[in-house]
Amino acid sequence: MVVAVIALLLALAVPGLSGLRSRAGSIRELSALRGLTTAWTQYATDQRGWLLPAVYGMPPLSPLPAFYEDGQPIPETVFGNQRAVVARWPHRISRYLDHQQQPLAVSTEAWQVESCSEGDLMKRLYFASLYPAFGMNGMWVGGDQERYGFMPESIGGKPNPFRNLHASRLTSIRHPERLVVFASSRTNQDACATGSVREGYFRLESPQWLGPQWAGTYDPLLATSCGNVSARWNGQASVANANGSVELVPMHELRDMRRWADQADAREWRFKPN
Predict the structure, then answer these.
(1) Strand runs labelled E in the chain
(2) Beta pairing partners, 185
(3) Do 115 and 192 contact (CB within 8 A), yes or no?
(4) Tally of CA atoms within 13 A in the half-sphere of 181 that contains its CB
(5) Which residues have a Cβ under 8 Å from the Cβ of 107 and sit 6 or more positions away?
(6) pLDDT tens digits for 209-254?
(7) pTM reported for the whole predicted model
(8) pLDDT tens digit sequence for 18-31
(9) At what angle do helices 121-130 and 108-117 cross, to 10 degrees?
(10) Radius of gyration (Cα) for the chain, nearest Å?
């Protein structure tokens, strides 16, 4: 009888404790996300309104300054491709976070970065640029060189239909209250061969582009099913908007393209090049 009562009490208590841990984790992540968004705004202020590019500096573009914890430039001896490490946004926003990694590696992402790094600073710099807790909506906000950003004005003497695809200045955003800049992220890309879905990735993909990019349902084992967005808080993702607000958003709401592209005027909006 005593054992049965104890088992019943445990059965009642464990879900409650799990819920409390989840709530505490989401609150901690939203706090970190608020700090990241403040840094993002400070970057734009210092750059006279120009927004932080998500990926910028791979050939033929010249790299932008990027730093690590002690304020030193990312060295040539960094693990992997030095230009790629510098091109990704995490180390370029680092000085606006006082070179602290807490806002970029909140929970399991910190362990994953350290596990992949094996105590090697050069590896840690590489994996920190690849696996931050939050991905950036760079294709539509700030620009992503690998997602049609920063292309020439014309191609073969004709206007480039992909020119100025993204919002590039803070003052040009018409709907900052709903435009996603950062969100909790995940990936199946496995740069250190741990063979698992990992929480944290630097890039997000929108639900639509020239056609659908998200699957019909969220697959917990396939990051690309919903554009690398992680619904790790009971089916919700932590999101930072362009106006500085942070919130937990259900995945069905994030399927609305008006949350991703400032020019979108409908939930199923798709880009149509001229």
Answers:
(1) 134-136, 154-155, 158-159, 180-184, 186-187, 198-199, 236-241, 246-250
(2) 229
(3) yes
(4) 30
(5) 25, 28, 29, 133, 199
(6) 999 999 999 999 999 999 999 999 999 999 999 999 999 999 999 9
(7) 0.88
(8) 454 567 878 999 99
(9) 140
(10) 20
